[in-house]
Design a protein that fits this description.
single chain, 129 residues, mainly alpha, 2 domains, elongated
Length: 129
């Protein structure tokens, strides 16, 4: 039921934003940003069970908690960069939006470097055998 309320909120805010865009585009952008932030925060507050489940899966697979940490950081970077990019596009700043997406991709690569290092170490060990 909560998801239906969030979808209705998005539709109503979209309609109001369309009406506001003609006369006060800055208010339209602010409303869109506020509604999006509210929706994301309300969903993330319920997402703790997902993180607990993924942590249990990593533990059951006998993997280091470092993998989970990197995974969660990368997911956070992806969500935040997508939201920021979409907000820039809503404001008509498509060039800035593509730069935000590029920065997000670079941050994911930098964050996941420890995993790449472990893969290379494992490959070296396998080649020595």
């Amino acid at each position: 039921m909560e998801s239906l309320a969030l979808f209705l909120l998005a539709i109503i805010c979209s309609m109001i934003c369309v009406m506001l865009k003609e006369h006060n585009p800055e208010y339209s952008f602010i409303l869109s940003l506020a509604a999006g932030t509210f929706m994301i925060l309300s969903v993330f507050s319920k997402a703790s069970s997902i993180f607990v489940h993924l942590k249990n899966l990593l533990f059951a697979a006998n993997l280091s908690s470092d993998y989970g940490s990197v995974l969660f950081k990368c997911l956070g970077i992806c969500f935040i960069s997508q939201f920021s990019s979409d907000s820039c596009k809503d404001a008509g700043q498509t060039s800035l939006a593509s730069k935000v997406e590029l920065v997000g991709k670079i941050l994911v690569v930098v964050t996941s470097l420890p995993i790449f290092e472990k893969v290379v170490e494992t490959a070296e060990k396998l080649l020595r055998i």
